[in-house]
Amino acid sequence: MVTQVPASDWSSHTVHALMAEVAHDLCTPVYSIGTTVELLLDTFESLDKLDKDEAARLLVRVRQGTRWLQEMLADLTHGRLAAATSDELSGKPLNLGRCLERSVPIVQPLLDLRHQRVDVRLPQRPVVVWGDEHLLRRVVVNLLSNAAKYSRDEDTVELEVAAEPEWALVEVRDHGDGVRPLDQMRIFNRHTRVRRSDGALQPVGSGLGLSIVKSLVERHGGSVGVRSEAGQGATFWFRLPRLGTRRRIPRTRSAA
Length: 256
Known about the structure:
- It contains 7 helices and 7 strands.
- By secondary structure, it is an alpha+beta fold.
- It folds into 2 domains: 7-77; 92-241, 2-Layer Sandwich (Heat Shock Protein 90).
- Strand 6 and strand 7 form a beta hairpin.
- Helix 1 packs antiparallel against helix 2 (52-77), helix 1 packs across helix 4 and helix 4 runs parallel beside helix 5 (133-150).
- The protein starts with 11 loop residues before the first helix and ends in a 15-residue tail after the last strand.
């Protein structure tokens, strides 16, 4: 999926950054699988109330989470680096909307736990970009996980893909406390934790998710940002060059 870099070329800083990022992104599928298994166990506790359709739905989610976990571990096992490096991408033309829509099931168990939902809005015509599908799905998994974490119970998180003349625009909107103007300037920096509008620290986290998002998007020739007002939620967005425009597409190489 990503260019393989010889271990001899890794600096200690790169190795540390890689391990931190992989550990961060492994948390979501591990937690999702664990949450779904707990729901399954609750379902099977009372056989007279067993809903086979519900059990099948939960098992599908376990399978989806497991496959995502396998992809992450494959990247680690084979030395295929991601956000921690600036190596060339292995990309292909992608229908961005369909690609990102496939990210939702990874975080769905986290949403279900707090009775939240994702409203996905895609344009009628495909928006095509050149990129690595796994890495772009990592971007959206991180953004959706963040939105779920900072939203309230029963809130709706919005995921929207739109076509601009030369760019593909993706927005993830939540309805939480929002991001203060001062924090918006540094929120994509590594290990940054922001405060709520009342000054209290937001939920505990590593402060890595948004820095991973920024690095992966920029490797695709794109940009990231946030719009927010105190108490009005936040919209995290990123743009990628559309295929077939004059925008620069990142250097790529075929997957081995």
